[in-house]
Write a structure and sequence with these properties.
The structure is a homodimer of 164-residue chains.
Chain A lengths: L1 H7 L13 H24 L5 H18 L1 H8 L9 H25 L8 H13 L1 H4 L8 H14 L5
Helix pairs in contact in A: 2-3, 2-4, 2-5, 3-4, 3-5, 3-8, 5-6
Chain A binds a DNA duplex (16 and 16 nucleotides) through loops.
Chain lengths: 164, 164
Amino acid sequence: MRDIAKAVGVEAPSLYNHIKSKQEILAELLMDIADEFITGMGEVERMDAKHQAKVEALIGLHVRISFIKRDAISLLTHDWRQLKEPTLTEFVQIRQDYEDRFLRIIKMGIEEDEFKDIHPDVALFSLLSTLRWLHVRYGKKDILSIEEMTLQLKRALMGGVLKN
Amino acid sequence: MRDIAKAVGVEAPSLYNHIKSKQEILAELLMDIADEFITGMGEVERMDAKHQAKVEALIGLHVRISFIKRDAISLLTHDWRQLKEPTLTEFVQIRQDYEDRFLRIIKMGIEEDEFKDIHPDVALFSLLSTLRWLHVRYGKKDILSIEEMTLQLKRALMGGVLKN
DNA sequence: CCTACCGATCGGTAGG
DNA sequence: CCTACCGATCGGTAGG
């Protein structure tokens, strides 16, 4: 809080004229960014397209948000653990909802023979862990543009590394 | 430190008869587990095999260590940021060394036409971010055995999700 | 191995 | 918006 106050140019106690608690700031930032993902997921689900295109659209969604809101993303990946009840439970439910909907797309892709017969949870886990670490990648030097990164990730994640 | 003391069954100050500082515990745990990865990498590099087999062996390495040393792995992924100098620099170098050697295998696989012509850094990033989050996956209910998980991850990461 | 305790940090309140 | 300050926490030391 003292750091925030310094950045804003006031004394620490003055912050409390604008906010209720440190928790409140964290919760608000987290819910905002979580909303963007949920909204994006809704748009993808309404797409009239193959499941491959939907998963690729979700890859694009993560790349875009990770690029534009680097800092908030890092909250989403790490700092949500600092939330206290009841916000923690609320957040975990939203997150679970997102994962469930992602998983459903993968399962349908497998059923309809678009995707390989791999363990759907493992596929989801593999996709999401890469997508959730993107903000770290963007912390480094050789920055790829949003378009390049999206293209490369689609190739790597959808098609794997092996030739054939 | 008070939590550790309670778990061990002594008062907090008594810990300092056995250790020098909190930092020392963290550094020691981190260096131990980092060593296991560096040793594993050395063995993989000495394999007389295709680059595909080497990457698959590294997947196996991560799955095994993540399964057996869940707690230490979480230090490696998250808590190393708490290290102070000079140990921090030392750790970052070891980590960089590991990534460089992993990257070299990927690049050689691409050169020798075993792997697709994808951006090597993106491929490494994608593989490593999945492998580094494994300990979270193991925190959940439906646990796959080491063998099953290794098999599934090889398929998902090497071959991707798409049929064909 | 313990008791006693320190100094720094931190989220936050009182009162103006 | 500020000054003054509290109570809890935490890594660690002194001294036995």
